[in-house]
Amino acid sequence: TTTTTTTAATAAADDDDDCRDEGSDGCVTSLYQDPVNDPSRAKFSSLGSAASNAPSTRAVLPKPVFVLSDCTGESAANTCRAALTQFEDVNNLEMPTNFYVFRFLSEESDVYKIVQQAKEDDALVVHTLSDAAMATAVATACKLYDVKSVNLWGRLLTAMEEHLDMNRTGVPLSAMGRGGGVGEDAAGGSRPRRGHAAAESLSNDYYKLIEAVEFTRQMDDGARPERWKDADILILGVSRTGKTPLSIYLGQRGYKVANLPLVPRDGKLMVPKQISDVDPSRVFGLLIDGDVLHSIRTNRLSSIGVRAGGADAATNARREYSAMRQVTQELSLAKALYARNPEWEVLDVTHRGVEETAAKILRKMFTSENANNFQGMVST
């Protein structure tokens, strides 16, 4: 069974499906066709986050990437997502591909079907398949259908076999048992078991992750400042700068994160005294362009039904929240606070994704902790 997930440019994917249903032969494989010279494909010209603003008259549209895995596909998917950030500015596309993940593959026949679809869609196939027979099936199918492919695991596993002087099991992580040796699967067949040490290590890492996520959840929005001293990271910022999603993102990577909204009271920012208990190198202040923040807040109020013309006190207060003068005042106070604390790292999140901002935070922490110093490393 294959599971397909669209993770980028879903609008393009939806339109592709429409074309397929209508029997328009080759419309998906021709996403780079010039709609000016091919009116039948002109509807694709608006796809892509900024295609309509591109200086060229040629509409360049996302080409698909198919990720194939015999487990969850996260290893390959995360690698591809990281690689795609190198191409975000090409042709003004925010995400220059349609991204599909095919999970828990176990049948070679499914591989051939997927690769055949990749041929039709002019897709790049990226795979992480533990079973050598499945990996060979992908290579054979890609050669048969003339599809470009990348085996992310092949050379790595071969090199590790030579380095460790051991043979790989060739069994997906999802099929492995616990306790070491060979166990039985649901069908009564044999399967390698994970060793006790590996299982224990996985459990410890898992519980540490759960602890970090729970800590981050409890410490959202300035809650429990008395526990800030236990945080790995403290994030400050005015409302709607993305503190919570950034905190959650970092929490899901094992970091205990607290965040504090900077809300003026009588024209001043009052920060809890417990902030002095936090290592300044772990404090990060967020800033954003005033016009962008004004637009975000205005859209936020519209989404919850606050419209112009209301006269009650609550509506007036909410409109004041999005007023440009309020936005300017809050940002000025935040900048002044950061200036008084030069040890804090200040990050501009204007038009920045959560992943990009998180990467800057983690890089700063790794640098300050000299985490890549081999002499101080602990084997994990």
Q: Can you walk me through this structure?
A:
- The radius of gyration is 25 Å and the shape is elongated.
- Strands 1-3-2-4-5 form a 5-stranded mixed β-sheet, with helices on both faces. Strands 10-9-13-14 form a 4-stranded parallel β-sheet, with helices on both faces. A 3-stranded mixed β-sheet has the order 6-8-7.
- The longest helix is centred in the middle third of the chain and has 23 residues, at 196-218.
- 26% of the residues are buried.
- Helix 7 links the parallel strand 9 and strand 10.
- The chain is built from 11 helices and 14 strands.
- The protein has 380 residues and is an alpha/beta fold.
- It has helices spanning 10-22, 74-84, 108-121, 132-145, 154-164, 196-218, 243-251, 290-303, 313-322, 324-339, 354-368; strands spanning 4-6, 63-69, 97-102, 124-128, 149-151, 177-178, 182-184, 190-194, 233-237, 257-261, 264-265, 268-269, 283-287, 345-348.
Integer average pLDDT? 76
Order of helices and strands: EHEHEHEHEHEEEHEHEEEEHHHEH
Strand content: 15-25%
Main sheet makeup: 5 strands, mixed
The radius of gyration computed from the alpha-carbon positions, rounded to a whole number of angstroms, is 25 Å
Find the count of extended strands (DSSP E, 2+ residues): 14
Structural category is alpha/beta
Widest sheet: strand ordering: 1-3-2-4-5
Low-confidence stretches: 1-60, 178-188, 190-194
How helical, in percent, are the residues? 25-40%
Q: What would the principal axes of the Cα set say about the shape?
A: elongated
Count the DSSP helices.
11
Distance between the termini: 34 Å
